Amino acid sequence: LAHGGGGEMTSRLIEDIFLPAFGTENLTQHDSAVVSAPKGKLAITTDSFVVHPIEFSGGDIGSLAIHGTVNDLSMSGARPLYITAGFILEEGLDTAVLSRIAHSMGQTARQAGIAIVAGDTKVVEQGKGDGLYINTSGIGIVEHSLAIAPSSIEPGDAVLVSGDIGRHGITIMSARAGIDLQTDLQSDSANLWPSVSTLLQSGIAIHCLRDITRGGLSMTLNELAETSGTTILLDETAIPVCETVRSTCDLLGLDILQTACEGRYLAIVPEKQAEQTLLALQRHNPEAARIGTVIPSGTAPLLIDGLLGVRRILSKPYGEQLPRIC
Amino acid sequence: MAPSPENHPRQHISRLRLNITGAVQGLGFRPFVFRLAEELHLAGWVRNTPAGVEIEIEGHPKQLSAFRTRLETDAPPLARLFTIEPCTLPPAGYAEFNIQESGAHSAAVPVILPELATCDQCVADIFNPDNRRYYYPFTNCTHCGPRYTIIEDLPYDRERTAMRIFSMCSTCREEYGNPADRRFHAQPNACPDCGPSLLLYDATGTLLRKGRKPGDIKAMLNRAVDTLRSGGIVSILGLGGVQLLTDAANEEAVRRLRSRKARDAKPFALMVPSVETARTLARISPDEERILRSPSAPIVLLTRRAGAPIAPSVAACSPSLGIMLPHTPLHHLLLKKYGAPLVCTSGNLSGAPLCHTQEDALRSLRRIADLHLLHDRPILRPVDDSVVRVFRGREIVVRRARGYAPLPVGPSQGPDTLALGGELKNTLCWRAHGLAVLSQHLGDLETEASTSTFRREIDNLGRLLHAGYGRLIVDSHPDYAASRYGRYLALKKGLTVISVQHHVAHVMACIEENHTPRPALGTAWDGTGYGTDGTIWGGEFFDIGETDCRRIAHLRLYPLPGGDAAAREPARCALSLLHSLSAEACPTLRKTVNRELAATVRDAVRSMMDKCFNSPLTSSMGRLFDAVSCYLGFHGPNLCEGHAAMQLETLARRYHETEQNKPSPLSWDIREENGCLVCDWEPVLRLLDSELKREASAEELAWRFHDGLAELIVRIAQSCRRTHIAVGGGCFLNTLLLDLLCDRTEQAGLTFDYPQRVPAHDGGLAYGQLAAAGLTLTTV
Ligand SMILES: [Fe+3]
Ligand SMILES: [Mg+2]
Ligand SMILES: [Zn+2]
Ligand SMILES: [Zn+2]
Fold first, then answer.
1. pLDDT tens-digit readout, B353-363
2. Residue of B614, B626, B638, B732 best to disrupt the A interface, most CBs of A under 10 A
3. Which residue of B has its CA nearest to A181?
4. What is the residue extent of each domain of chain B?
5. Which ranges in chain A are annotated with CATH 3.90.650.10?
6. B608: nearest CB among A177, A324, A325
7. pLDDT tens, B532-561?
8. Which of residues 350-389 of B touch A (CB under 8 A)?
9. Could you confirm whether domain B520-779 is CATH 3.30.420.40?
10. Residue B354: which residues within 8 A CB-CB, separation 6 or more?
């Protein structure tokens, strides 16, 4: 791939790669996409994807961009409708790779029932990008009347997770560490809308939803507790983690609770609907579990009960994981 | 008739005012002054002041000077006088000597006394059937008993202690009011008619018996002894919190305690009925005996005798045994009945702070203890048992708590400041009224409970000291709980927060304690601490001046694959060092590491280092100890802190004590890189490899490794032309290393200071932070 600068090369990229991959009927050839606006409230989100490596077991940066955007919309309980995609390509990127990613992206979008309605491409000099970055914006429609937000979280609420944690993070991390896990471990990257949709249809009075991404369970729950002015108390033994993820965390010296997911979310619901929520979540992933409870604001935003009743503080990771033991 | 001193003409009388600062209140210092003045026929008064006591004394100059001398030589054992400022005044014509009540102005007394072990006279009282305190477990006097754990506020008077809920009977009140009585102003004074009761609960928390009469006490003690004899676990509420007891000779019982407490292989301490029993378990020098018997009554780390009759899992990973003597009447009564060594460990859940209330003991230790022997005298703050060891006749504090905290470590210059310490083995240090007051050991700040204790103790200590702070000091590690809390407090109160580099604080703790002259070479060796350059420090040398501090040397960097995971598995560090060398170097060491790490793990760890994935670079000496221990035969993960390093020290010590002619040290390479000295361990590894090939013993090589480290410090001092050396960090708990350093520095004509009253590890960090806050750190 050569530096295009918006000329002939770029338009060839669009015609040769993106249009066939995404399907042409929705992708505008004009400066903006004109789409029909359904009745109701809209949810709008934007996100950038810089994952490295750009292709990994269980997905690639393209499918991840679709899932990430769809999931962000789903977390407000919005049905995903439209997505736009901006690409920043590094000069020298293999066009075969780009083509694979574009196709994966198109296929993921079709599966998720979301239309890629606009796009943009820029090529930067070699060394100024990391192969490929994608920026997306998503639009979805809110078809319920719940206030799904951190401010709705109340002491007494139940905290559930939609499946076992850490698969995405560990897949990416072991790839980066150059370790062949010699297992079938794959990223958990997935579309969360079907699961969220089931919760809504089951009549759960959802207080908050949050996908577990960067910083893992630790970061995500710390933020939720901080914004809602509550404390979240986890039960360590209840957190679902698969054996491969657990042993790889030990090997790499990583904290499972700080490891990212791309297809798992937290549902915070009234205690009386905890059981019903669990059943609904388990229809999509049998590993879903009740992992904690919201309590009034305490010593720290996030606490965890370990074995034999020792209650630890889980603080927000400050930066990268640093050795602490002296 | 020779004139008596009273009949001297007036002009021969003079008056002296003595302003004394130090730990002098509440241990019978004023009665001591009173008796001394009476004896010397001197008039005047003594009273408490915010910083200590003030004395005015009037009489013949010769008597006055005798008074001055004996004030220091004959003072009660625990009194610590920091400064005595004399001031000579014209005579005031006092007729007698008296003890003045503390005035309102002296509401702020910074010196709070620690708990004192039961004195011999009180021990005699409880074993004397004719004494009214026969078998009374809460007997005490001005020389002994609880202090810090019962004080709500100062001045130290009964109504401001936890003892105010017990109203003294007329006999106790009489003792309390009589200056000639040993219990004059003994704030916790109590007896079987008026004091606290002993309570016995079963495992479910049901009260079995409560009482304070000899009959009640005996029945409860018998029940506890039966439980212990049958291998059960008994919780006992002592001075500063709960201790868990079990038969030290019963392996099954000790294992049960370990598994119920979810405790790793960390050694358990023992309580023995007498020094004679202790001698059957360990070798005890006269100094060690003195400290065992001292009012602080700490756990003393002693060299275990071969074949000591104790269960193997009491202290499987250490050659030492931690032993203490009974230090309350309750312990004396129980141990006398039991007659054999008991495991005596902190009553807490692994990682949580010491339980110190009845409720907490019954709730938290429900699944651990089979029987609870508690009392109803409230303990206001948890204070663990202290741990010390004796080195060259000096006491070295390893854990500073009961019997020591919160005595000031010494004077400290500067504005009132609070230093928050580190993450593990946390202590706080408060500079107030010109003194540095170090809190008791507060534990690892990873649990909610220890964090709450930490925050509460900040408030408690501030209240007791009547001190505030204008600045806060924290470790520069951004993720330490104490650092986070410090930043939060500073923000809330609009104060300055100063972060201090971990290893500079370690070194400054030693320099401050020993008054090491500067410029000095400061050597900080520990596990891992946050460096200022993005690497993880742990093997550092600083040139310490009055206002600045320069990092002049460090160990050659190596990766720490998996961060904290490398601290658990010594073989990872062993592999990491070899990975930095050329592929064919050190084949013998490689073989050892290959036996320790499975091929898949080895490949993964190598790959992590190649890709710089979660493999921060470090100059850690602690991890280097782990690696060398692995090369010399250490197997498996570290089962407790310092496990591999302790094994290496043990090997070396065996050689040290048996071999007369010592071979040459394993010498390091020192070279300059960008204006900083780099201490390269590569020659040490290559020597280890070739010596192992010619089948030198692990003991010999471990010794030569230690000696090489002592040599390294001396060489660095010589190369930067410093004659004073101070050290800090957990590696210097290693007394063989200290021994070799003492020898080598002496031979080289250098002075050598090491931490004593303040722990060398992170438990002394807060004290060092106070002194380090004013230094500018430069690196090259
Ligand atoms: Fe340290
Ligand atoms: Mg996102
Ligand atoms: Zn006494
Ligand atoms: Zn009484």
1. 899 999 999 99
2. B614
3. B604
4. 5-107, 198-387, 406-500, 520-779
5. 150-313
6. A177
7. 998 999 999 999 999 999 999 999 999 999
8. 350-352, 364, 367
9. yes
10. B240, B241, B242, B346, B347, B348, B382, B383, B384, B443
